[in-house]
C-alpha cells in the first residue's frame, strides 16, 4: 500500500524558499519504496519550477491558486490545507519552521487531532518505520527525541539543517491544478507593508554577521553590512543592539527573536548572554570578535578574535574581497 507525504512549498515573490527544498529532502529520506511525495504550493509555478520540485523528489505538484492566497492568510491557508489533506490523505505533512509553518502547523494538528513535531533539526533511524526526530530544548542546551504516534502527523523543520539534493534520475512530477473553494473568511488583508531589514533573508542565510552593544551606534553596523555583502550573507543583531536603537527589531536573534542555524555565524561586539545564545548556538561555525577576552561568547566560539571590531571587521572584509577576486 502506498502512502503520501505532503510538503508545503513556500514561494516568495516567485522564488521557492530553500527550506522547502530541505523539506522535500527530508521527505525523500523518510520515503518508503512505493511512497509518493506531494508538493503543495498556494500559487502558480513556472514549468521550470515544477521540474525543479521534481528533481528534488516531488512525485506530484498541486497548485492551489486563488486571489486570497497571494498573501499568507491563516484562515485561507488553513482551509486549503484541510481540503488537500482530506483529498490526498497523507501520513505525514512537512513544512518549514518558518513564520508560516509555526502559525499553520499547530492549528492544523489541533483541528485534526494529530501529533506535531516542531523545530526538527535531525532525524535518526530514517530507514525504519518509526524514526526518531531530534529537536533542541532549553535554549539548545539539551535535545529530545520524539516519534510519530499519529497518522497524519505534522513536522516543521528548522531551516539550514537538512541538505537539499537533486535526484540522480530526473523525474517529471504529475501536476494538478486544484480548484480552491474558500468559505467566507472572517479576516481580510487590507495592506501589506514590507520592511526590508536585511538584503538576505536572515532565517535562511548561510552566513550571518551579527552585531551587539559593542557596535555602539546605527552607523556602527555599516562595517558589518559591508562584510555581509562581500560574503553574500545577512546582518543580524542582539537584543541589546535593538533595544539601544541601533537597528530594527526584525534583525533580532535570540530567545525573543529569530532562531537560526547558519553555516557561519559572526558574533561581533556581542557578549554572549544566554538569551542570545538560544537563537544561534546551533550554528555550524561561530566566529566571535570582542575586545573583552572574558566575554562568554568565546566559550562557544570555534574561532575568536580579541580586538577592536572597528579595526578587525574592515580587515576581514578586505581579505575576503581579495580572496573573491582571485
UniProtKB/TrEMBL annotation:
Cofactor binding annotation: Binds 1 FAD per dimer.
Molecular function via GO: electron transfer activity; flavin adenine dinucleotide binding
Domain annotation Electron transfer flavoprotein alpha/beta-subunit N-terminal: ranges: 5-189
Record's keyword terms, sorted: FAD, Flavoprotein
Family matches, as CDD domains: ETF_alpha
Any GO BP: fatty acid beta-oxidation using acyl-CoA dehydrogenase
Cofactor(s) needed for function: FAD
SUPFAM superfamilies given in the database record: Adenine nucleotide alpha hydrolases-like (SSF52402), DHS-like NAD/FAD-binding domain (SSF52467)
Chain positions recorded as FAD binding sites: 213, 238-239, 252-256, 269-276, 290
Database matches in SMART domains: ETF
Stored Pfam families: ETF (PF01012), ETF_alpha (PF00766)
Family: Belongs to the ETF alpha-subunit/FixB family.
Family matches, as PANTHER family: ELECTRON TRANSFER FLAVOPROTEIN ALPHA, ELECTRON TRANSFER FLAVOPROTEIN SUBUNIT ALPHA, MITOCHONDRIAL
Record protein name field: Electron transfer flavoprotein subunit alpha
